[in-house]
Model the fold of this input.
Amino acid sequence: MPSRDPLPPFERVVAEHGGTVLRVCRALLGPVDADDAWSETFLAALRAYPALRPGSNVEAWLVTIAHRKAVDVHRSRARTPVPVAVLPERPAEVGIPAPDDDLWSAVAALPFTQRAAVVYHHVVGLPYAEIATILGNSTDAARRAAADGRAALRRRYPTEEPS
Amino acid sequence: MTLEPSPVDTADLTRLHARLTAAAADADLLDVAYRIVDTPVGPLLLAATPAGLVRVAYAVENHDAVLDRLAADLSPRILAAPARLDTAARQLDEYFRGTRTTFDLPLDLSLARGFRREVITHLPGYGRTASYAEVAAVAGSPRAVRAVGTACARNPLPVVLPCHRVVRGDGDLGRYVGGVEAKRALLRLETAA
Done:
């Protein structure tokens, strides 16, 4: 077996990144599905963890797994819409509990790719090159998706200062 | 654009962590479970594999460093999973209260091989002591007195496998992985009972 730096105990990965992954899951899926996505993300990560190359960006790796789980949930929602008595004005995944509810509702209303790009860049702080890998597009496309998302947020949420 | 993420509640993460450890155990992915218990000789780290208790560590050994070594030697699939160490924690509690003289726990001795394993499985009974030379003889290598000292210093399961009962031939307590104060406290506990 090739010798390499040992990986830290997985407990430390959960302690360090559990909060960020939960924020990502909530921002992508809303509070109801976020818990399941978080649990599935960390169980999948635990399974794959011994093979992770030491020195990898663990946060980006976890966000990549969470992204795949969120895409699955998103697709299954599109396939099997939940019957409701009254049609909501916006998609059903709206409703992220936050002190700043309006802005987060606006984020939740963004198209999925824009929402993911905005969350990964502005909440997690990942560079666009990393986001492109997660989204399976180019750095330019990832940057554009985030820019489009920001522009849509400014329209829906005009009081927010642009940075 | 300033997107201040909603604060994540510690209680939410605690709940999700418990759910993760249960799911990990169900999926056979919890290679090492651990918890830390408070005892009269300070906080002890208890770690178990599915085979049994694999490590007991004093604070002076540095619990973070011990977990790093477990990740390297056994598996990095390590989670704090207190419930999986309930029996060990209860028996240790009984031992420190003086109501238990032997531990009845499945043990995983994979961290001690060869002569070191012979030594730590041939230690004196509760309330008794033996010299390093006596233990060497019982373990089958009467000349390996120094190796007995090394085996005790590297005992992966102190307290449960009682290296604290091995003392120097001249009556001096000798060294101990948990510090000589801990050794004195354990011997005093066992003679008082």
